[in-house]
Amino acid sequence: MENGDLGHAMGEPVTLNVGGCVYSTSLSTLQRHPDSLLGAMFREDLPIVRDAHGNYFIDRDGPIFRYILNFLRTSELTLPCDFKEMELLRKEADFYQIEPLIQCLGDPKPLLLYPTDTYEEVVELSSTRKLSKYSNPVAVIITQLTITTKVHAVLQSISSNFTKWNKHMMDTRDYQVSFTFGPCDHQQEVSLRVHLLDFISNAGFSIRNTRVHHMSERANENTVEHHWTFCRKTCHIDD
Predict the structure, then answer these.
(1) What CA–CA distance (Å, rounded) separates 176 from 79?
(2) In whole angstroms, what is the distance from residue 177 CA to residue 154 CA?
(3) pTM of the shown model
(4) DSSP-derived pairing of the beta strands 176-181 and 221-235
(5) Which one, of 86, 122, 110, lies nearest residue 234 by Cα?
(6) DSSP strand E in 46-196: where?
Protein backbone atom coordinates (compact mmCIF):
# COMPACT_ATOMS: atom_id res chain seq x y z
CA MET A 1 0.00 0.00 0.00
CA GLU A 2 1.60 3.27 -1.06
CA ASN A 3 1.76 6.31 1.17
CA GLY A 4 -1.09 8.63 0.38
CA ASP A 5 -3.55 5.86 -0.47
CA LEU A 6 -5.33 6.57 2.80
CA GLY A 7 -5.26 10.31 2.44
CA HIS A 8 -9.05 10.45 2.67
CA ALA A 9 -10.94 13.09 4.57
CA MET A 10 -12.28 11.41 7.69
CA GLY A 11 -15.77 11.15 6.21
CA GLU A 12 -14.77 10.21 2.67
CA PRO A 13 -15.91 6.69 1.68
CA VAL A 14 -13.54 3.75 1.87
CA THR A 15 -14.56 0.60 -0.02
CA LEU A 16 -13.63 -2.85 1.26
CA ASN A 17 -14.00 -6.29 -0.27
CA VAL A 18 -14.36 -8.69 2.66
CA GLY A 19 -14.49 -12.28 1.41
CA GLY A 20 -16.33 -11.20 -1.74
CA CYS A 21 -18.80 -8.83 -0.04
CA VAL A 22 -18.24 -5.15 -0.80
CA TYR A 23 -18.78 -2.56 1.94
CA SER A 24 -18.46 1.23 1.94
CA THR A 25 -17.68 3.11 5.13
CA SER A 26 -15.52 5.97 6.37
CA LEU A 27 -11.90 5.91 7.47
CA SER A 28 -12.92 7.26 10.86
CA THR A 29 -15.24 4.26 11.37
CA LEU A 30 -12.47 1.78 10.55
CA GLN A 31 -10.13 3.59 12.95
CA ARG A 32 -12.72 3.81 15.74
CA HIS A 33 -10.63 1.46 17.91
CA PRO A 34 -6.95 2.27 17.26
CA ASP A 35 -5.68 -0.89 19.00
CA SER A 36 -7.73 -3.16 16.74
CA LEU A 37 -6.40 -4.93 13.67
CA LEU A 38 -8.49 -2.65 11.44
CA GLY A 39 -7.08 0.37 13.25
CA ALA A 40 -3.55 -0.86 12.56
CA MET A 41 -4.37 -1.69 8.93
CA PHE A 42 -5.79 1.72 8.15
CA ARG A 43 -3.00 3.56 9.94
CA GLU A 44 -0.80 1.81 7.36
CA ASP A 45 0.96 -0.12 10.14
CA LEU A 46 0.10 -3.38 8.35
CA PRO A 47 0.08 -4.13 4.61
CA ILE A 48 -3.26 -4.23 2.78
CA VAL A 49 -3.89 -5.64 -0.68
CA ARG A 50 -6.42 -4.40 -3.21
CA ASP A 51 -8.70 -6.40 -5.48
CA ALA A 52 -8.98 -5.94 -9.25
CA HIS A 53 -11.40 -3.02 -8.72
CA GLY A 54 -9.16 -1.15 -6.29
CA ASN A 55 -11.11 -2.09 -3.16
CA TYR A 56 -9.16 -2.92 -0.02
CA PHE A 57 -9.30 -6.72 0.30
CA ILE A 58 -9.62 -8.69 3.55
CA ASP A 59 -9.80 -12.47 3.25
CA ARG A 60 -12.35 -13.11 6.01
CA ASP A 61 -16.04 -14.01 6.23
CA GLY A 62 -17.95 -11.43 4.19
CA PRO A 63 -21.57 -11.66 5.39
CA ILE A 64 -20.64 -11.62 9.09
CA PHE A 65 -18.60 -8.43 8.60
CA ARG A 66 -21.82 -6.38 8.36
CA TYR A 67 -22.38 -6.87 12.11
CA ILE A 68 -18.80 -5.90 12.89
CA LEU A 69 -19.05 -2.81 10.72
CA ASN A 70 -22.36 -1.76 12.29
CA PHE A 71 -20.80 -2.16 15.75
CA LEU A 72 -17.98 0.17 14.69
CA ARG A 73 -20.54 2.68 13.48
CA THR A 74 -22.86 2.66 16.50
CA SER A 75 -20.91 1.01 19.38
CA GLU A 76 -23.95 -1.25 19.76
CA LEU A 77 -24.30 -4.92 18.84
CA THR A 78 -27.57 -5.51 17.00
CA LEU A 79 -28.34 -9.03 15.79
CA PRO A 80 -31.47 -10.59 14.24
CA CYS A 81 -33.68 -12.64 16.55
CA ASP A 82 -32.89 -15.81 14.61
CA PHE A 83 -29.12 -15.21 14.45
CA LYS A 84 -27.33 -18.59 14.52
CA GLU A 85 -23.70 -17.72 13.87
CA MET A 86 -22.58 -16.45 17.27
CA GLU A 87 -19.48 -18.66 17.32
CA LEU A 88 -18.38 -17.33 13.94
CA LEU A 89 -19.00 -13.75 15.07
CA ARG A 90 -16.87 -14.36 18.17
CA LYS A 91 -14.03 -15.67 16.01
CA GLU A 92 -14.23 -12.69 13.67
CA ALA A 93 -14.35 -10.19 16.56
CA ASP A 94 -11.27 -11.84 17.99
CA PHE A 95 -9.49 -11.77 14.62
CA TYR A 96 -10.15 -8.05 14.23
CA GLN A 97 -9.21 -7.49 17.92
CA ILE A 98 -12.13 -5.15 18.63
CA GLU A 99 -12.04 -5.33 22.43
CA PRO A 100 -15.47 -3.76 23.20
CA LEU A 101 -17.13 -6.18 20.77
CA ILE A 102 -15.25 -9.12 22.28
CA GLN A 103 -16.60 -8.05 25.68
CA CYS A 104 -20.15 -7.79 24.31
CA LEU A 105 -19.87 -11.34 23.01
CA GLY A 106 -18.37 -12.64 26.25
CA ASP A 107 -21.58 -13.15 28.21
CA PRO A 108 -21.80 -16.76 29.43
CA LYS A 109 -24.11 -19.06 27.57
CA PRO A 110 -26.81 -20.72 29.68
CA LEU A 111 -25.77 -23.98 31.24
CA LEU A 112 -27.10 -27.00 29.40
CA LEU A 113 -28.84 -29.82 31.19
CA TYR A 114 -27.16 -33.05 30.15
CA PRO A 115 -28.44 -36.62 30.66
CA THR A 116 -26.90 -38.39 33.63
CA ASP A 117 -24.74 -40.58 31.38
CA THR A 118 -22.96 -37.53 29.92
CA TYR A 119 -20.67 -34.82 31.26
CA GLU A 120 -18.72 -31.81 30.03
CA GLU A 121 -15.09 -31.76 29.01
CA VAL A 122 -13.52 -28.34 29.43
CA VAL A 123 -10.62 -26.58 27.73
CA GLU A 124 -9.36 -23.22 29.03
CA LEU A 125 -7.36 -20.92 26.77
CA SER A 126 -5.72 -17.86 28.30
CA SER A 127 -3.63 -15.18 26.61
CA THR A 128 -1.53 -12.50 28.27
CA ARG A 129 -0.02 -9.87 25.98
CA LYS A 130 2.24 -6.96 26.75
CA LEU A 131 1.88 -4.41 23.95
CA SER A 132 4.15 -1.48 23.22
CA LYS A 133 2.13 1.76 23.25
CA TYR A 134 4.42 3.65 20.94
CA SER A 135 5.87 1.18 18.42
CA ASN A 136 4.97 1.46 14.75
CA PRO A 137 3.86 -1.04 13.57
CA VAL A 138 2.09 -2.38 16.65
CA ALA A 139 4.50 -4.67 18.50
CA VAL A 140 3.88 -7.41 21.03
CA ILE A 141 6.68 -7.33 23.59
CA ILE A 142 5.85 -10.68 25.14
CA THR A 143 2.97 -13.14 24.84
CA GLN A 144 2.01 -16.18 26.86
CA LEU A 145 -0.77 -18.47 25.69
CA THR A 146 -1.76 -21.39 27.90
CA ILE A 147 -4.17 -24.24 27.17
CA THR A 148 -5.37 -26.05 30.28
CA THR A 149 -7.47 -29.22 30.11
CA LYS A 150 -7.68 -32.70 31.58
CA VAL A 151 -8.47 -34.03 28.11
CA HIS A 152 -5.01 -35.44 27.48
CA ALA A 153 -5.72 -36.18 23.81
CA VAL A 154 -6.26 -32.45 23.19
CA LEU A 155 -2.92 -31.56 24.78
CA GLN A 156 -1.12 -34.23 22.78
CA SER A 157 -2.82 -33.15 19.57
CA ILE A 158 -1.86 -29.49 20.09
CA SER A 159 1.73 -30.50 20.85
CA SER A 160 1.84 -32.55 17.64
CA ASN A 161 0.10 -30.10 15.33
CA PHE A 162 1.68 -26.83 16.45
CA THR A 163 5.28 -27.82 15.69
CA LYS A 164 5.77 -24.47 13.97
CA TRP A 165 5.84 -22.94 17.44
CA ASN A 166 7.95 -25.68 19.07
CA LYS A 167 10.88 -23.31 19.33
CA HIS A 168 8.84 -21.55 22.01
CA MET A 169 8.39 -23.02 25.48
CA MET A 170 5.87 -25.87 25.54
CA ASP A 171 5.00 -27.76 28.71
CA THR A 172 2.46 -30.60 29.00
CA ARG A 173 2.81 -31.01 32.76
CA ASP A 174 -0.09 -30.13 35.04
CA TYR A 175 -2.63 -30.56 32.20
CA GLN A 176 -1.19 -27.57 30.31
CA VAL A 177 0.49 -26.62 27.07
CA SER A 178 2.11 -23.18 27.17
CA PHE A 179 3.55 -20.99 24.44
CA THR A 180 5.72 -18.05 25.49
CA PHE A 181 7.32 -15.86 22.84
CA GLY A 182 8.21 -12.33 21.81
CA PRO A 183 8.94 -9.80 20.67
CA CYS A 184 6.81 -10.27 17.57
CA ASP A 185 4.53 -8.23 15.38
CA HIS A 186 0.80 -8.00 16.02
CA GLN A 187 -0.13 -10.30 13.13
CA GLN A 188 2.07 -13.17 14.39
CA GLU A 189 0.47 -13.03 17.83
CA VAL A 190 -3.06 -12.90 16.39
CA SER A 191 -2.25 -15.75 13.99
CA LEU A 192 -1.33 -18.19 16.76
CA ARG A 193 -4.42 -17.38 18.82
CA VAL A 194 -6.76 -17.69 15.82
CA HIS A 195 -5.18 -21.05 14.93
CA LEU A 196 -5.60 -22.30 18.50
CA LEU A 197 -9.23 -21.12 18.69
CA ASP A 198 -10.00 -22.86 15.39
CA PHE A 199 -8.19 -26.03 16.45
CA ILE A 200 -10.11 -26.31 19.73
CA SER A 201 -13.43 -25.57 17.99
CA ASN A 202 -12.73 -28.19 15.32
CA ALA A 203 -12.19 -30.73 18.12
CA GLY A 204 -15.89 -30.33 18.96
CA PHE A 205 -15.64 -27.70 21.70
CA SER A 206 -17.87 -24.61 21.82
CA ILE A 207 -17.05 -21.31 23.54
CA ARG A 208 -18.96 -21.05 26.82
CA ASN A 209 -17.66 -17.63 27.83
CA THR A 210 -14.98 -15.04 27.15
CA ARG A 211 -13.37 -12.50 29.46
CA VAL A 212 -11.07 -9.56 28.70
CA HIS A 213 -9.03 -7.59 31.23
CA HIS A 214 -6.84 -4.53 30.58
CA MET A 215 -3.99 -3.29 32.76
CA SER A 216 -1.37 -0.56 32.35
CA GLU A 217 1.71 -1.46 34.35
CA ARG A 218 4.18 0.93 32.73
CA ALA A 219 3.99 4.19 30.83
CA ASN A 220 5.08 2.54 27.57
CA GLU A 221 3.21 -0.79 27.89
CA ASN A 222 -0.35 -2.08 27.89
CA THR A 223 -1.15 -5.52 29.28
CA VAL A 224 -4.22 -7.31 27.90
CA GLU A 225 -5.52 -10.62 29.25
CA HIS A 226 -8.03 -12.81 27.41
CA HIS A 227 -9.63 -15.95 28.74
CA TRP A 228 -11.84 -18.40 26.84
CA THR A 229 -13.70 -21.40 28.27
CA PHE A 230 -14.62 -24.17 25.81
CA CYS A 231 -16.93 -27.10 26.59
CA ARG A 232 -18.09 -30.23 24.81
CA LYS A 233 -20.49 -32.97 25.80
CA THR A 234 -19.18 -36.51 26.10
CA CYS A 235 -20.52 -39.81 27.40
CA HIS A 236 -19.35 -41.77 30.44
CA ILE A 237 -17.60 -44.98 29.47
CA ASP A 238 -18.49 -47.96 31.60
CA ASP A 239 -15.57 -49.85 33.13
Answers:
(1) 36
(2) 10
(3) 0.53
(4) unpaired
(5) 122
(6) 49-50, 56-58, 118-132, 139-149, 176-181, 184-185
